[in-house]
Amino acid sequence: MNKKGLFYDGAICPAVTIPFDGEKESLAADFGEPVLSKCATVDEAIAFLEKYNIPHSFSDHIMFADAGGNSAVVEWIDNEMVVRYKRGAYQVATNFFLSKPERGGYPCG
Hints:
By secondary structure, the protein is an alpha+beta fold. The protein has helices at 32-38, 42-50; strands at 7-12, 25-26, 52-53, 60-65, 71-77, 80-85. It has one domain.
């Protein structure tokens, strides 16, 4: 969590194809740190991520939450970034993709 109240965490999921755009810069594997250093809200974090390539070996989905009570889970599915915003009072993320739960969860056991 940063000083503005923006928080992130990730949960590993099954492997997927990560989109790559040759016109964008690439982030390192720990891209949460630059997000926290530059952003204060969920919307700013998502806008930040849209400007960069995510490492091709990345298989987590990331939850962001902010001091205003907003949250979203960002996933990379079928070669695109998918954002699932909170509906209602809370949002839950586990080792299943919210946008494609039929793909199964990451074997944690």
